[in-house]
């Protein structure tokens, strides 16, 4: 019985140490050196190679080393009945809330304009509206989105939130369902997306969404790059419908050097760093889930495969 670490981008070392200490009976392997494939019972995965997990005949569960599971579920070879677990918070919530606040303040305090002015030694104070006149819309009110919404509200921004099913959050006006999306977007001076990537949310930030947002509003995307239709966003920025965007996630990562987002004067690019998984913060949850599965108890973060998150 072994545990297989499946990721080309993440460092297995801290996970190897944690597993050795907490689950000494389970040998830790790193893909592609999986040992006997039939021995692998659990996979710790982050962007695994497509087809890799399907080669493990006795796999009991995939434990994704992040909150988003799209890179695992998108593998067409993944067995339909294989349990997939995601991280629930595990240290991701606070940095995501901090990034969202940074992005909203960046636009509300005109930081981009001042950086452009500084490049030309221009001393020119600009009009600055207070947070109370900057309604922010948060797409996704799950583990991360609800704290993002609350953090923004605590900083004086009127906050609205949008989710698939109805929610009640103190001090936050909530909207649910696709039919309420346009109404939600219509009064959001900044839209912050913290959605998971699913068949329903892919391409949701498109020309129709940008047309529903107020003239001169802003987009912050910390969910997934495939939510954005890149050409529609560039067109909305170039026409002035949107005044700026801060983007942490992209359809292709790393963002190709030739992509227009890199050089667009009103786009801020960060390299998927809003909340990287920190092994030390996530290990306890992963280990506890393996223990629960071994005891036949329900784990946390079980993904609903039919919903896609
Ligand atoms: P959750 O599953 O806890 O929350 C997802 C939220 O999105 C829920 O409120 C859900 O609605 C809502 N949602 C899902 N589908 C739809 C839909 N079709 N229409 C409207 N709302 C929808 O996820 P987390 O909060 O833990 O994480 C969210 C995402 O953040 C991750 O999937 C990942 O993509 C991204 N992420 C990015 C990071 C980064 O560094 N940039 C780091 C960590 C996460 P409902 O409540 O009704 O189910
Ligand atoms: C995640 C991420 O989903 O880091 O956890 O993007």
Helix-strand layout with pairing:
Blueprint: E1 2-6, H1 13-22, E2 28-30, E3 40-45, E4 61-64, H2 70-73, E5 84-85, H3 93-108, H4 111-119, E6 136-139, H5 145-154, E7 159-163, E8 173-176, H6 181-186, E9 190-193, H7 207-212, E10 217-221, H8 230-239, E11 242-247, E12 267-269, H9 279-295
Parallel strand pairs: 1-2, 1-3, 3-4, 4-5, 6-7, 6-9, 7-8, 9-10, 10-11, 11-12
The structure holds NADPH dihydro-nicotinamide-adenine-dinucleotide phosphate and oxalic acid.
Concise structural overview:
The chain has 309 residues and is of the alpha/beta class. 28% of the residues lie in helices and 17% in strands. Helix 1 links the parallel strand 1 and strand 2.
User: What portion of residues belong to β-strands?
Assistant: 15-25%
Poorly predicted regions: none
Report the principal-axis shape: elongated
Q: How would you spell out the order of helices and strands?
A: EHEEEHEHHEHEEHEHEHEEH
What does the largest sheet look like? 7 strands, parallel
Sequence of strands across the biggest β-sheet: 8-7-6-9-10-11-12
Distance between the termini: 28 Å
C-alpha-based Rg, rounded: 21 Å
Category from helices, strands and their pairing? alpha/beta
Could you estimate the helical fraction of the residues in percent? 25-40%
Number of helices: 9
- Summed over residues and divided by their number, the pLDDT gives a mean of 97
| Bound molecule kinds, no repeats | NADPH dihydro-nicotinamide-adenine-dinucleotide phosphate, oxalic acid
Q: How many DSSP-defined strands?
A: 12
């Amino acid at each position: 019985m072994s545990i297989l670490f499946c990721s080309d981008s993440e460092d297995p070392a801290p996970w190897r140490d944690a597993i050795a200490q907490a689950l000494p009976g389970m040998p830790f392997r790193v893909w592609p050196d999986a040992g006997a494939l039939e021995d692998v019972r659990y996979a710790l995965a982050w962007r695994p190679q497509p087809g890799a997990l399907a080669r493990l005949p006795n796999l009991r569960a995939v434990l994704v080393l992040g909150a988003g599971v799209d890179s695992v579920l998108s593998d067409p070879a993944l067995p339909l009945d294989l349990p997939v677990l995601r991280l629930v918070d595990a240290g991701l919530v606070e940095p995501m809330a901090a990034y969202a606040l940074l992005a909203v303040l960046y636009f509300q305090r005109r930081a981009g304009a001042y950086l452009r002015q500084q490049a030309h030694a221009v001393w020119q104070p600009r009009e600055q509206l207070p947070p109370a006149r900057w309604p922010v819309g948060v797409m996704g009110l799950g583990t991360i989105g609800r704290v993002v919404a609350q953090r923004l509200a605590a900083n004086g921004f009127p906050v609205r939130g949008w989710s698939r099913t109805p929610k009640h959050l103190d001090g936050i006006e909530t909207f649910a369902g696709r039919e309420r999306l346009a109404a939600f977007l219509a009064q959001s001076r900044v839209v912050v997306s913290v959605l998971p990537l699913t068949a329903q949310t892919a391409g949701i930030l498109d020309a129709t969404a940008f047309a529903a947002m107020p003239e001169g509003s802003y987009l912050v995307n910390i969910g997934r790059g495939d939510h954005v239709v890149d050409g529609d966003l560039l067109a909305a920025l170039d026409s002035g419908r949107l005044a700026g965007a801060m983007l942490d996630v992209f359809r292709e990562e790393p963002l190709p050097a030739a992509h227009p987002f890199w050089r667009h004067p009103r786009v801020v690019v960060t390299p998927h760093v809003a909340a990287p998984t920190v092994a030390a913060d996530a290990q306890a949850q992963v280990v506890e889930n393996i223990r629960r599965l071994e005891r036949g108890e329900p784990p946390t973060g079980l993904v609903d495969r039919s919903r896609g998150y």
